[in-house]
Amino acid sequence: MKKFISAVILLIILATVTVFAAPPLFDTPYIGNRYRMTFHYRDCKSVWQMNRENQYPLNSVEEAYQKGFSPCGNCRPDIPR
Fold first, then answer.
1. pLDDT, position 21
2. Three-state DSSP class for 11?
3. pLDDT tens, 20-43?
4. DSSP character string of 27-64
5. CB 44, CB 74: distance < 8 Å
6. What is the pTM of this model?
7. What's the confidence (pLDDT) of residue 61?
8. Which of 44, 54, 65, 81 is 20 to 30 A from 37 via CA?
């Protein structure tokens, strides 16, 4: 019985993580967050934590600045890799 309960709890946790941790919706080099008004490299961990409805496709750093986005403090997309 304990194994069954543990398995159910694990499935609930995995389902929750899957709902909230999702890959970027767009195939652009940068993803903006409409809620926080920040932009990120598409592989930034912050993009995976972002609500999908807040994701905004951006093709360049210049476009991000023109639309009022600020660079992410984690991935620093304003500094070329």
1. 62
2. helix
3. 567 888 999 999 999 999 999 999
4. -SSEEEETTTTEEEETT-HHHHHS-GGGEEEES-HHHH
5. yes
6. 0.72
7. 97
8. 81
DSSP state of 65: H
Residue 78 CA to residue 81 CA, distance in Å, equals 9
41-69 core/surface letters (b: 16 or more CB in 10 A; e: else): bbebebbeebeeeebbebeebeebeeeeb
The ranges of the chain with pLDDT < 50 are: 18
Please tell me the predicted confidence (pLDDT) of residue 36. Answer: 97
- What are the phi and psi torsion angles at 25 (to 5°)? -75, -25
Question: Among 42, 43, 47, 74, which Cα is nearest to 58's?
Answer: 42
With CA atoms as reference, report the closest residue to 55 among 19, 78, 28. 28
Tokens 């993803």 found at: 31
